[in-house]
Amino acid sequence: MTDEEWDFTIATDLTSVFKVTRAFGNIMKKNNYGRIINIASMYGLVGNTAMGTVAYHASKGGVVNFTRAVAAELAKYNITCNCICQGYFETELTKAVLDTEDFKNYMKQTVPMGRYGKEGELNAAAIFLESDEASYVTGTILTVDGGYTCV
């Protein structure tokens, strides 16, 4: 991995989360209320043997612990900060990899549910974390990964 590849991934996947959180966090502090939901990845919690993506793993792990730190710092302003760590979902960026036979076989061996996430399956996690019923939930890392991180 080159320095440029590392820097690009860290900027895209971690620094951007910091900048957006800072901007909206300042507004939320003025309002003494807010809900921040960061999106990381199951790869922020564990490694993998499928591909070399160390910068991605490092950046998403950074988002996980950034979320915990922000949750602690902003709680006194009635702001919660939580993180969703999703598993394999088909997107424009992942479709080419997920559609390969090799990756499908890898997924079947590593995801207890034996399938990729479906459209809409992240919705309930986000709706819960932004709800009034979750007003005492902060610093939580919620996995939606078909069981990948439990094995």
| Count of DSSP H/I helices | 5
Helix content: 40-55%
Low-confidence stretches: none
How many β strands by DSSP? 3
Order of helices and strands: HEHEHHHE
**Rg, alpha carbons:** 16 Å
Strand order of the largest sheet: 1-2-3
The SS-based structural class is alpha/beta
Q: Bin the strand percentage.
A: 5-15%
Q: Secondary-structure blueprint of this entry?
A:
Layout: H1 3-31, E1 34-39, H2 54-74, E2 79-86, H3 95-98, H4 101-110, H5 123-130, E3 141-144
Parallel strand pairs: 1-2, 2-3
Helix pairs in contact: 1-2
Please, could you describe this protein's structure?
- It contains 5 helices and 3 strands.
- With 151 residues, the chain is an alpha/beta fold.
- The protein is globular.
- Strands 1-2-3 form a 3-stranded parallel sheet, with helices on both faces.
- It has helices spanning 3-31, 54-74, 95-98, 101-110, 123-130, and strands at 34-39, 79-86, 141-144.
- The chain has one domain (3-150): NAD(P)-binding Rossmann-like Domain (Rossmann fold, 3-Layer(aba) Sandwich), CATH 3.40.50.
- The model has no long low-confidence stretch (mean pLDDT 96).
Q: What is this entry, summarized?
A:
The chain is an alpha/beta fold.
List keywords for this structure.
151 residues; alpha/beta; Rossmann fold; three-stranded parallel beta sheet; 3 strands
